[in-house]
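We emphasize that the prediction below concerns an isolated chain of 422 residues; any contacts that depend on oligomerization or on bound cofactors are therefore not represented. The input was used exactly as deposited, without trimming of termini.
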Amino acid sequence: MLDLKFIRENPELVRKNIELKGENANIDFLLELDENRRKIIAEVERLKHHRNVVSNEIARLKKEKQDATAKIEEMRVVSDQIKAMDDELREIETKIRAELLKIPNMLHQSVPAGKDSNDNVVVRAWGIPLEKNVPDHIQISKALNILDFERGAKVTGSGFAYYIGKGAALERALITYMLEKHIYEHNYLEMLPPLVVNENAMIGTGQIPKLADDMYYIDKDELYLIPTAEVPVTNYHSNEVLNIEDLPKKFVAYTPCFRREAGSYGKETKGFLRVHQFNKVELVKYTTPETSYEELELLTKDAESILQDLNIPYRVVLLCSGDTSFSSAKTYDIEVWSPAEKKWLEVSSCSNFEDFQARRANIRFKRTPNDKPEFVHTLNGSGLATSRLIVALLENYYNPEDGSVTIPEVLRQYTKFEKITK
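Result of the prediction step, given as a token string:
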């Protein structure tokens, strides 16, 4: 959420940012509400001052045994006016917050202008993409009996799958390896958070109201299935004030993730390319404002190191303005190479939200005990999401001579096998 004072003082800058992000927010109504709010506050303060003055006069009249009836009646009317204005003020402030929640985060100055993913900028690449023809991950997994999309659709619906035998072991190995890498080498604190959260948590990280249609909602309990561990982990310190000595805070969490993908009509949906339930190891940071962009680079490199260990070709892409999410100020996508699809698949988005989420979730810190609290900067990134990673792994490690898949060396201590064969 943006600071209302910033919007008031920089309306054209905010309008331009809304346009660059391709959003439809209209700040004119917000500014009108804000102007009315300030007028009401000024009038309430004037009436309260007047009431204080007259109340003192009433006390004087009573002390002097004079008739104060007229002034008492006048103050009754004034008190009713103040109450009515306070009620109106609360209603306006509710509307202001609702409008603020519709306005996207400001883009960092380093983000290139662009309309969509075609305008993203490749920052760096690692490894040599495999160019030879291989079966896709659906054909490979079906031949090896390690994934079952048909029965996933039968039992739940499209976008769900079973991991079977060595497929389940491979998934478990990936998750365990990534957790241990981030915990023991990158010094993140492990969390195992709730898989359902309340509305305030979803508002805090920016999924609501913008992405409400993409969320799974449990109506009876008024709770949401998490779309990512970002939501419960980022909100862990909501409505708290931290000490500067606590920063940066670095969390890592594995969870299943649930997304309706209501806005993905027309996109590639076969197999693991787009699913409603998937596993992800998530990285979350709280930092000071002056260090957050340095921490974004470190966060991205932590995620990249997984792919280097797995020896899977990837590239890092800086998202343009039109492809940067509602809540993010700057995002790097990490994309792996799919030989069968002959395209790059996103396995991680590493983002700096600056104080946008912290302002919504009220996460602050103090530089000294006597200082006024400031909002932290929050960051997160997948470290990594496994569904498309499995696609790249199966296809890049496929052995055409016998249809087997070799297990990357770093995973073998967890899988207890070196190859998946028919």
